[in-house]
Fold this sequence. Notes:
Blueprint (H helix, E strand, L loop, with lengths): L28 H15 L6 E2 L6 E2 L5 E2 L6 E2 L3 E3 L4 E4 L11 H6 L2 E11 L2 E10 L2 H11 L12 E4 L3 E6 L2 E6 L8 H7 L1
Antiparallel strand pairs: 1-2, 3-6, 4-5, 5-7, 6-7, 7-8, 8-11, 9-10, 10-11
Amino acid sequence: MSTPAKGCADGLSTLPRAASSIPRLPRGAATTVALLTLVLLTACDSKPRATDATDGEKNTTPAATVISRGPATFDDGWTRGDRPRVFTQQDLFNHIDGAAELFIELGFKRVIVESYARGNDKFDLELYEMDTPTAARALFYRVRGDGEPLDGVTGRNVGGPYQVAIQKNRYYAQINNFDGEERCIPDMVSLA
C-alpha cells in the first residue's frame, strides 16, 4: 500500500468520492479546472515521489507527480482514469520520448496527462504549461497536426477525429483519440 504524496494536495487523494455526489460540469469546464490545477501546482515547492496510476510501479523521479483532481465525469458518461500524471522538464522524455527537446526549447514547464473513457471509447487530455503565450503559440503551430477550427472550442484550435489541439494564453492542450472514432469528436469538443 502506498502512502499519499506529500505536498500542496495532501489528503486530496484520500477523500471519499460518492458517484452520486459528483456534479456534472458545463461544457469547457474541464479545461478550466486543468488550468486552475496548473496554477496551484506552480505555487507548490514540494517535489513528492509518486506511483504512476497507469502501471502501479514506483516512480522514483521526483518531477513526475501524481495528483488527484476533477472533473471525475462529464457529458454523457465519460469518466476520467484514476489519477492524472504530471511531467516537468526533467522527465518529459518519459512521456514524449523523441520530442521532449523541442518542447523544452520552446519554453515547456510541465504537462498534466489524464485519460477519459466511456465504454470502449477512450481519449487522453494533455495540458501543457509553457513559459509565455508566445511559447504556447509556437508549440501549437509546430505540433498541432491536421484539422479545421472547431465550433464550440475557445482559443486557437484545430481538430479532427484523432486529435483536438488548442492554444490559449500560455497553455497548449491536446485531446488525443487514438482510435479516431468520429462519434467522439463532440465529446472531445465538450471536454475542451
